[in-house]
């Protein structure tokens, strides 16, 4: 139920953020930056399908508005400022971030238990 509500809110808010002139979706603070590849690679690999699906859905939903803005303006809008691209980024980030966080957490815990903790103990004993 909560997941459906979050998905519905993302679908409704992504176009509004994309059509605002100056708003660019702020990059989400990924919690595992600076961690080892043992944590980041699985998190990135498993979150990519959600990011890509969200990007495609967001871009398709906002495509009519993007075409309207393109026809309305005489000069060409840069590709990264197109409403459909901005909407796709916003929805892709909104769907991919929770997957990234959820998948990386078990790997972060396993790394702490089986790599960092024994290593800290060995270093403490050597001193």
Describe the structure.
There is one protein chain. The chain has helices at residues 2-19, 37-72, 83-126. With 127 residues, it is mostly helical. The chain is elongated, with a radius of gyration of 20 Å. The longest helix has 44 residues, at 83-126. The chain has one domain (2-17, 38-126).
What does the secondary structure layout of this molecule look like, with pairings?
Layout (H helix, E strand, L loop, with lengths): L1 H18 L17 H36 L10 H44 L1
Structural class: mainly alpha
The poorly predicted ranges are none
Percent strand: under 5%
Q: How many separate domains? A: 1
| Radius of gyration using CA atoms only | 20 Å
**How far apart, in Å, are the first and last alpha carbons?**
53 Å
Looking at the structure, what is the overall shape? elongated
Number of helices: 3
Count of β-strands: 0
Largest sheet: none
Short structural description:
The protein has 127 residues and is an all-alpha fold.
Which features would summarize this protein structure in a list?
127 residues; 0% strand; 3 helices; elongated; mainly alpha
């Amino acid at each position: 139920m909560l997941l459906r509500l979050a998905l519905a809110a993302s679908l409704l808010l992504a176009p509004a953020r994309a059509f605002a002139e100056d708003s660019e979706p702020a990059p989400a603070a990924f919690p595992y930056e600076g961690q080892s590849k043992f944590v980041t690679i699985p998190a990135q690999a498993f979150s990519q399908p959600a990011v890509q699906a969200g990007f495609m859905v967001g871009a398709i939903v906002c495509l009519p508005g993007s075409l309207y803005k393109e026809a309305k303006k005489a000069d060409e809008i840069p590709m990264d400022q197109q409403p459909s691209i901005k909407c796709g980024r916003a929805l892709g980030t909104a769907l991919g971030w929770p997957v990234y966080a959820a998948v990386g957490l078990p790997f972060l815990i396993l790394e702490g238990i089986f790599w960092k903790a024994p290593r800290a103990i060995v270093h403490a004993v050597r001193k």
